[in-house]
Design brief:
Radius of gyration: 22 Å
Number of helices: 21
Shape: globular
C-alpha cells in the first residue's frame, strides 16, 4: 500500500506538470514548488524554532484562523510558519501578518519531509480538519514533535475505517491529539483503537462569530443595495447561477450580490451575459446613475470579500450543492439570515444542523428554489429562520479556547 501511495503522489504531481501550460491553477501549484526547499533554506533563520500550521486551502485557513490569531496575540514572540497545499489558499494568504513565513507544502516524499522539517524546526504542528500525509507525519513522530489535528471530522466511508485501510490507520497513529468537531468522530476513532481524541467543536464558529463585530461598510455595496431586499449568492457554480437567473427574473424588486467561485475572465464575461442588468464591482464607479438604478445584480469579480457581503443580505444562497458539496454556510448564518443551498450537503454537519433548526433550506431544482425563496420573502418566516441561524453560530463557539487550554497545559508554548 505504501508503494501505491508513493505512486499516487508521483502521478498527481506529474499530471499537474503536464497540465501546467494550459491550466492556471496547475501552473501556480507547479511553479510554487520549483526549488522550494532551497527557497525555504534561504528564507528561514537556521536553528530557529517555529510553530507550523498547515492548511489545505483557503477554507481551512479561515477554519483554523482563530487558533492562529490567539497564538499570535497572546504569544507575539513565537515564530509561525504557515503552509498551503492549494494555490487558492497560498495566493490569497501569502502575505498574512499572522505568520512569519508562508510557503507551499513540498510534495509528500521521504526526502522532502525530512528536509522541510529539519529546516523549519517545529516546536509543534497544527493541521486543520484533514490532510493526512504519510511521510510528514512519520517524520514528525520520529522526531517526537507534537502533531495536533483541530476541527477534525470523520465519516464511516473514509478509508481509515475500511478493512483494507490499515496503511491509512497507521498514518492517524502519528497524530498526538485529535480535537474533533463532533462526538461521532471520537467514537469512530475509538472503534479503530485511537483514543487520543476529544470533542472541542469546530473552530470555524470562533472565527465567524466575530465577523459581524468586525464588519466595515463597503460603500459600493451600500450604494448598490439602497433600500432594496437583497439575496447574497456566494461561491456559486454554473448550475447555481442558472437557477439564480430564473429566480431573479421572477423577482424584479429584489437585488442580488453574486460572488462566484470562479472569477477568471471567461466566467465573468459569461455571467455578464447571463445577467444583462449586472454591474461589475471593480468598475462600479464608471457606471452612470441610471445604470446603477436599473441594475439588479452586483457581480463581485474578486476574492476575499464574501464574508463581509452577507451583512447586506436578507437571505443567502450558498453554491456548490450541485457539485462536490456546498461551500461555507456559517459566514452567512452568523449575520442572522437564512441560508439556501443545493442537495449535496450531507458531509457538512453545520448544514444538517441548520436544516433541522429551520435556519437552512435545501433545494434540488428550480421549482424548489422558487418555493423556498417565495416562502422566505414573508417576514414571519424569514426573520425567525435568521434568528435561529445566528443563535446556532453563537452557541457553538468555544473550540479555540479548549485548544489553547491544551497548549498551555501541555506547556507547548514555553
Amino acid at each position: 500500500m505504501r508503494f501505491l501511495y508513493q505512486a499516487g503522489i508521483f502521478l498527481y504531481g506529474l499530471l499537474l506538470r503536464i497540465l501546467a501550460p494550459f491550466h492556471a491553477k496547475a501552473r501556480l501549484w507547479v511553479n510554487g514548488r520549483k526549488d522550494l526547499l532551497k527557497k525555504i533554506e534561504q528564507t528561514v533563520e537556521p536553528g530557529q524554532k517555529h510553530i507550523w500550521f498547515h492548511f489545505a486551502s483557503l477554507g481551512e485557513f479561515e477554519q483554523g484562523r482563530s487558533v492562529l490569531e490567539q497564538i499570535r496575540k497572546r504569544f507575539p514572540d513565537e515564530k509561525i510558519i504557515v503552509t498551503f497545499f492549494s494555490p487558492s489558499g497560498f495566493e490569497i494568504r501569502k502575505n498574512t501578518p499572522l505568520a512569519d513565513h508562508v510557503f507551499y507544502l513540498p510534495e509528500d516524499t521521504a526526502g522532502n519531509a525530512r528536509k522541510f522539517i529539519e529546516l523549519i524546526n517545529p516546536k509543534f504542528v497544527v493541521f486543520t480538519k484533514y490532510e493526512y500525509w504519510y511521510f510528514y507525519f512519520r517524520e514528525l513522530k520520529r522526531r517526537n514533535i507534537r502533531l495536533l489535528m483541530i476541527s477534525a471530522i470523520f465519516r464511516e466511508e473514509q478509508l481509515f475505517f475500511k478493512e483494507y485501510g490499515g496503511f491509512y490507520r497507521n498514518i492517524l497513529k502519528n497524530v498526538s491529539y485529535f480535537f474533533t468537531q463532533n462526538m461521532d468522530s471520537v467514537h469512530m476513532l475509538k472503534w479503530i483503537r485511537i483514543t487520543n481524541a476529544g470533542l472541542a467543536g469546530d473552530t470555524r464558529f470562533d472565527r465567524v462569530v466575530e465577523l459581524p463585530k468586525e464588519h466595515k461598510e463597503i460603500e459600493v455595496v451600500r450604494d448598490f443595495v439602497g433600500d432594496h431586499r437583497v439575496l447574497v449568492a456566494g461561491s456559486t457554480w454554473g448550475q447555481d447561477e442558472g437557477l439564480l437567473k430564473v429566480l431573479m427574473d421572477n423577482h424584479k424588486g429584489w437585488k442580488m450580490i453574486l460572488a462566484p467561485h470562479e472569477i477568471h475572465k471567461e466566467h465573468i464575461t459569461q455571467l455578464m451575459g447571463l445577467f444583462p442588468k449586472s454591474l461589475l464591482f471593480s468598475k462600479y464607479e464608471s457606471y452612470s446613475d441610471i445604470e446603477k438604478q436599473q441594475a439588479q445584480v452586483l457581480l463581485i469579480d474578486n476574492i476575499g470579500m464574501l464574508s463581509s457581503l452577507y451583512a447586506y443580505g436578507d437571505m443567502a444562497y450558498i453554491g456548490g450543492g450541485f457539485g462536490a458539496g456546498i461551500h461555507n454556510t456559517l459566514e452567512a448564518a452568523t449575520y442572522g439570515i437564512p441560508v439556501i443551498f443545493g442537495p449535496k450537503y450531507s458531509r457538512f454537519q453545520e448544514a444538517v444542523d441548520l436544516l433541522e433548526l429551520g435556519a437552512g433550506f435545501s433545494i434540488g431544482n428550480q421549482g424548489e428554489l422558487n418555493g423556498v425563496f417565495g416562502a422566505l420573502m414573508a417576514d414571519e418566516k424569514r426573520l425567525p429562520a435568521g434568528t435561529a441561524a445566528k443563535n446556532y453560530v453563537q452557541q457553538r463557539a468555544g473550540a479555540t479556547q479548549i485548544i489553547m487550554k491544551y497548549l498551555e497545559t501541555e506547556r507547548l508554548l514555553e
